[in-house]
Amino acid sequence: LLTVTVFLSTLTPKFYFALTVTSSFISGLIFVFEWWHFRKYGTSFIEQVSVSHLRPLIGGAENSPPAPAAFSAGESETSRQNMPECKVWRNPLNLFRGAEYSRYMWVTGKEPLTYYDMNLSAQDHQTFFTCDTDALRPSDTVMQKAWRERNPQARIKAAYQALELNNDCATAYVLLAEEEATTIVDAEKYFKQALKAGEMIYRKSQNCHSQSPQHEAQLRRDTNVLVYVKRRLAMCARKLGRIREAVKIMRDLMKEFPLLSMLNIHENLLEALLELQAYADVQAVLAKYDDISLPKSAAICYTAALLKARAVSERFSPETASKRGLSTAEINAVEAIHRAVEFNPHVPKYLLEMKSLVLPPEHILKRGDSEAVAYAFFHLQHWKRIEGALNLLHCTWEGTFRMIPYPLEKGHLFYPYPSCTETADRELLPTFHEVSVYPQKELPFFIHFTAGLCSFSAMLALLTHQFPELMVIFVKA
Predict the structure, then answer these.
(1) Of the candidate ranges 83-92, 166-175, 441-450, the one whose mean pLDDT is the lowest
(2) Partner of 397 for a Cys bridge, out of 27, 106, 277, 348, CB 3.0 to 4.6 A?
(3) How would residue 83 be classed by pLDDT, with cut points 50, 70 and 90?
(4) In the chain, what are the domain boundaries?
(5) Does the keyword Coiled coil apply (predicted)?
């Protein structure tokens, strides 16, 4: 102690200044390296070394986190270039304008659909329900103008004008079913009339479709009308409780028009089969459509996770699993949940009722909040029906963000999460809904620690430079 006291008394203020500057510089280098390592690999270097190498030496458990997928700069740049743009899709389970969206507005006084969403629907209607030969039929000419009308009452009036010209105008009945009918029962009546007229026109188009390109375009339009009407009739039957009838219509539709897979009728079928609790049939549909070459959806990913969770959720306990480890079936269920959450990270908060739902929009953005709202709106009841499924989801879904180091730049199973979804979702979802954004990854403890150490040592260096004698007295004391 005497030797240390003598040594400290002989040191000058310059020594203390040099010491604090050096320690500040070293801690700054450590901080910069930690930040760079976190940006590149998504984990703290110090924490990773301590968990992987130091803990086993002192007798700790070897619970090393899964190794992050390392991407080179070239691979990262390539994946960013290949990342698809944010494409808006028609919601396979969109509600009825008059019977559901309008009723919500009458009760709450809030507009459930945005102008952008309704404008996209108007474009869809013009694409699906019109063609170049509309001038040959006066009723179709009127309906071509009707789909462009912005005022709902003007569209309904035009539909009645078309029916006066031609009582078998299928698209006029479609418009009335969507917008004038105030109940699902009324909508179904209009759609049955549309089906009768649509089938008759479709048969005529089939007989003469090879005569000219105009007749081929007319057949495509009449096919679109027929498929649309049958699908909506299936949705009416589903909403009115005739689920087996709805399933039959959907299956027949998929067999008759297999090339129209982009309409995602299989998502309507999945939801109806889940309501019937026909889980073997659900698995058969997933086996056909859950393919890497097809565009994924939240309905496919989360339904696959639900079926795997169903096998283990009833007996799953996080305390027991932490003691004995996960079984093979539990690992498969957790991996399926991680896969689903990676595809769309917004769904769990709605399924766990941590965030309030709104009516789903008519268009959705895959991997976005709009798709999460649309999925949870119809599938929450199916998750609740399986005992323990939501508990398993609650215990495991956040692990996805530790498994994927930096999801906006890298992906584990899918391409990196698109950064454009927030902007598009704000245009699709109503203003009174708080749009969900991708969860930000929290900074590790050691980044905060090294930043604080660097700042503290820099402050000491500054004080030593400004008040050398005072700091020397303080150190000696």
Answers:
(1) 441-450
(2) 348
(3) very low
(4) 94-263, 278-442, 449-476
(5) no
Q: CB within 8 A of 24, min separation 6: which ones?
A: 454, 457, 458, 460, 461
Residue 348 vs residues 76, 364, 402, 423: alpha-carbon distances, Å: 28, 17, 16, 21
Supply the pLDDT for residue 374.
95
Transcribe 74-131 into DSSP letters: HHHHHHHHHPPP--EEE-TT---IIIIIHHHHHHH----S-HHHHHHHHHHHHHHH--
Residues near 344 by beta carbon (within 8 Å), at least 6 away in sequence: 298, 301, 302, 366, 367, 368, 371, 372, 375
Asked if residues 89 and 366 have their Cβ atoms less than 8 Å apart, the reply is: yes
Q: What is the pLDDT of residue 396?
A: 86
Helix residue ranges, H only, 386-440: 389-396, 400-403, 421-428
Measured CA to CA, the distance from residue 13 to residue 256 in angstroms comes to 90
Question: Measured on CA atoms in the order 415, 419, 424, 429, is the torsion positive or negative?
Answer: positive
Q: Residue 67: is its pLDDT beyond 60?
A: no
**CA separation for the pair 94, 356 (Å, rounded):** 18
pTM for this entry: 0.75
Structure tokens, 97: 């304008």
Q: Report the 10 Å Cβ neighbour count for 436.
A: 22
Q: In 3D, which of 370, 381, 309, 295 has the Cα closest to residue 338?
A: 309
Q: Is the pLDDT of residue 90 over 50?
A: yes
